[in-house]
Amino acid sequence: MALSLPIDAKANELLARSPLALLIAMVLDQQVPLEKAFSSPYVLEQRLGHPLDAQELATYNVDGLVELFSRPPALHRFPKAMAVRVQEVCRLLVEQYDGDAAVLWGDARSGAELLKRISNLPGFGKQKAQIMVALLGKQYGIRPTGWREAAGMFGEAKAYYSVADIVDGPSLVKVREHKQQLKAAAKAKA
User: Does pLDDT of 134 surpass 90?
Assistant: First the structure.
């Protein structure tokens, strides 16, 4: 199975075939609607005019990359910061995983190791890393021993907590409802 979001079919197809696109989408998945975050790798690829490549993005002129992210419609609410973040992630991929996002998770021997690798990426705190582990396990079949435990609550079966749980329109609604409940609870505490 691969991710199926309410976005352009070509953007979904890119997320299914390109581990780097999937990773970039997760980098961008903050402070924007998930549709924006998960569509932006496809838009970036179109702007580049060829498939995404970690080596290229790692060494891309930062001003040029910011321009690609900023061009209307911007790829993120904070295009400069996210262009830099994507470049940082790509540099780490080049330095530690031969520029291949699939290697980042492909040979992890345990869920704990996978979580640690993802947590070491720039911009990936504990929750985002757990969501990525859950996404890989639930949607992409990347399931080293202990992956559900490493993903925490996001690894729970039949849960609707994050992008990892979205497989159709009704599941998207359930994930959004869960997030609204969390926001309401946090607001009530404050």
Answer: yes
